[in-house]
Amino acid sequence: MSGENSIEQLKSLGDGRFEITFAIADDMLFDIDLQLQLFCVASGQELQSIHIRQAGWDVAWLPRGRYVAEVDAGSVTLPTTGARPKALLWDQTNNKPRLLSALESGTPITEGRIAVPDRLQKPSWSLRSLDGLALEDLSWNRGHDDWFFKHFDHAARVIVNLMLADNELLKGRVLDVGCGDGMTDLGVFLRCRPREFVGIDPSRRFDLLDEVAARNHIPDDWKRDPALRFEPFDANALPFDDDHFDVVLSWGSFEHIVGGYAQSLREIRRVLKPGGLLFAHPGLFYGEYGNHLGEFFDDPWIHLKLPPEELEKRVKATPPDYMDRGGEFASPDDYWQWYTELNPITVTDFEKELRDLGFEPWRVALRTSNLVEYTPELQQYGFEQLANTELYVSAWNRK
Ligand SMILES: C[S@@+](CC[C@H](N)C(=O)[O-])C[C@H]1O[C@@H](n2cnc3c(N)ncnc32)[C@H](O)[C@@H]1O
C-alpha cells in the first residue's frame, strides 16, 4: 500500500455513533490514538472531545492497512444549530504526540441530542481491520500475560519513552547487551529507527525472532533492513571499537552474566561514546522476582528461607508452571543451573558501581513490593534488599 497515514472517511451513523475509516501507509505506527471532536456549528465551540486511549484502549501499534473505528460519543447535548464532527489520528502519544491526519465532516449533525436522554452514557469504541487482520491477536490486546507484549511493547516503551525520554541518541548507534530472543530489540528498533542496532547474546535465541515476529503479525520489512543485526558475542569482550555506540541497553541480563558483571560494565563504558547513554534493568536478587524461580514457587523469598540443598531438591522435583516464554521451555535442571549463576545485585551496590565507573545517573525508577512479611530467616536482610523489586536506571557516560 502506498500513500499517507490518513483518515479517509468520517460518517455519522445516527444516535451519537460515528464511523472513522483510516489508512496506515507506514510499515507500522506506534502508540496510536484516535480522537473525535464535536463543534457547535454556530459558535465553533468544542462540545465534545473523546480519545480511544481515554476509553482504556492501549493501541500500542498497528501494521500497515486500512481500519474502521466505530465510536459512540456518549452523552452530549447538541445545540439546535447542530454540531460538526471531526476525527483525528495521532501516533507517538507516549512522549511526543504527532497529529498524522484530521478530517472534518461537511455534514453537521442536527438531532437535538445524540445520547439516550435518561442515562449517562460513556464514550465507547470498537476497531476492526478491513484487511482481515485479527486485532484480538495483537500483543497490546493480550497485555502483560503475553511474553511478546512484555518485551516488544512494555520493555521497549520503558526503555524508549520512560527511561531514555525518546532521546535523539536513540537514532544513532545502539547496542543491547544480553538481548535474549530479541523481541525488545525489535520493539526499540521499529520505534526509533536507529542508524545501527546490534543485539548481542551468546544464547542465539534471537535466531527465532523471524518466526516469533511473524506469528505476532509484525510486517516483515524489518528483515531486509541491515541496520538491525544480532550477534552471539560475549558481554565480557565486546568486539567493537572504543566510543562506537551512542546508547547501550541491558534488560534483565547483568544478573545472569556468569562470574559477575564488573567486566561487562567496563566493556560497555569503553564502547559507549563520551556523553552516550546507558539504560540498565538489572535483576535484584533479594527482591520479589530475584530468584527467577517463580515458575516453581509462590513465595518470592523462598530462596532466602530454605537451605540451598532443600531448594535444589524442590526445584528438581517440581514440574514448573510454564509461562509463555515465546515458545521456549526449559527443564527444572536448566532453571536450577541459572539460579546458581545469578549475581546477587542490590540497588545500593549497583548505584555505587555505576558511579565509580564514571556514569552519571539521569533517570531512576524503582518498583517495590506491596508488603514484605519478615520471618525469622529473613531478619538478616535489610528493608532495601527485600522491598525493592525492580530497578531501572539511565545514566550518562562521563569520560
Ligand atoms: C533473562 S535473559 C534476558 C534476555 C532479554 N534481555 C530479555 O529481556 O528477554 C538474560 C540473558 O543474558 C544473556 N547472557 C548471559 N551471559 C551473557 C554474556 N556474558 N554476554 C552476553 N549475554 C549474556 C543470557 O544468554 C540471556 O539471554
UniProtKB/TrEMBL annotation:
Protein name as catalogued: Class I SAM-dependent methyltransferase
Gene3D superfamilies, alphabetized: Vaccinia Virus protein VP39
Single GO BP term: methylation
Keyword field: Methyltransferase, S-adenosyl-L-methionine, Transferase
Ranges for domain Methyltransferase type: 175-279
Cross-referenced Pfam families: Methyltransf_11
Lineage: Bacteria, Pseudomonadati, Pseudomonadota, Gammaproteobacteria, Chromatiales
CDD domains recorded: AdoMet_MTases (cd02440)
An annotated Gene Ontology molecular function: S-adenosylmethionine-dependent methyltransferase activity
Keyword Methyltransferase: yes
Keyword Protein transport tagged: no
